[in-house]
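Q: My labmate handed me this sequence with no annotations at all. I'd like to see what the chain might look like in three dimensions before we decide whether it's worth expressing. Could you predict it?
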Amino acid sequence: MKTKHSTEELIEKLTSATCGENASIREKRVFKEALRSLVRLAKAEQILELRTDVKKVIELPSNTLHSHWEVD
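A: Here is what I predict for the chain of 72 residues:
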């Protein structure tokens, strides 16, 4: 999947730019894992937001939904 590959590349670049050459292997690993955790959190928040939006649309009365999409 291209997105995961791009995310990993970005994490590598951010780690190199932030930690520099003097950082230990452990420091780089901790930083990378923190970034991966933030990516997972952002994805979970996005899914939750999408589910909330879908729930709002599903709960609309049918006449409201149809009138919203009508073209004048």
